[in-house]
Write a structure and sequence with these properties.
Length: 232
């Protein structure tokens, strides 16, 4: 079942409201009012990109990467930075996480179809690799399961007449930043998937698509235990 959280807020929250919980055939969830004290204190002295993870954190007290979030509200843009807010008058935040096994299977199937489409562009007279970019909003738990299923999908993938041997899944976890010298930021990690069963080594020691190899830690973003700092 997909756990959900709803946060509904007006201009003020004069008291700490008791959360309302529910559970039915479609999922479980919680509804409560927003505590505005933190958001108003920060926005009184600073500007925050509207809709960013930082804004959500100010409104609901934390930002859980395992949840997807949707936010709507009434806000006043900064005079110098129109996408930054210097005041939020009203807001509602919805956070959800889908634990459906079928949803995860569908994502793995999509990965397989992307590989099949790319494999059709490979030459037939030499070994090849495929890169698949994945925008990762699902959170660590879901990404770990999806990674495992993608690995299984590639073990029995039929590359046809091509000599496809390896697939690199490039996972991008985007974040909105309020730094003045950049408009967006991502955390890129890469997972290697062996196509079928063979002894061909990975041909590309450096295969990140956007991030310089010298600036990353080895491992995947959903498993910090797998990450090891690069030797310098």
């Amino acid at each position: 079942m997909p756990p959900q959280r709803f946060y509904l807020g007006g201009k003020t929250c004069p008291r700490v409201c008791t959360p309302n919980h529910w559970r039915d055939d479609h999922g479980i969830g919680t509804i409560r009012e927003i505590d505005w004290s933190l958001a108003h204190r920060v926005l009184g002295a600073d500007e925050v990109y509207y809709g960013s993870s930082r804004m959500i954190e100010l409104l609901i007290g934390r930002y859980d990467h395992d949840f997807a979030h949707s936010m709507a509200g009434k806000w006043r843009p900064s005079r110098e930075h129109p996408f930054w807010a210097d005041m939020v008058h009203q807001a509602s935040v919805v956070g959800w996480r889908n634990r459906s096994h079928e949803a995860i299977r569908q994502k793995a199937r999509h990965f397989r179809s992307m590989v099949a489409k790319a494999a059709g562009q490979l030459p037939r007279d030499r070994p090849g690799v495929v890169h698949v970019g994945v925008e990762s909003w699902s959170g660590g738990t879901t990404d770990a399961v999806r990674h495992f299923r993608n690995k299984l999908e590639m073990l029995d993938f039929d590359p046809g007449e091509t000599r496809l041997r390896w697939v690199y899944g490039e996972y991008f976890a985007p974040e909105v930043t309020t730094r003045s010298d950049e408009s967006w930021a991502i955390e890129e990690t890469s997972a290697s998937y062996c196509v079928g069963r063979h002894c061909t080594r990975e041909p590309l020691p450096h295969h990140m698509l956007l991030t310089p190899e010298a600036k990353i830690n080895r491992g995947v973003h959903w498993d910090t235990a797998s990450q090891t700092p690069l030797r310098r």
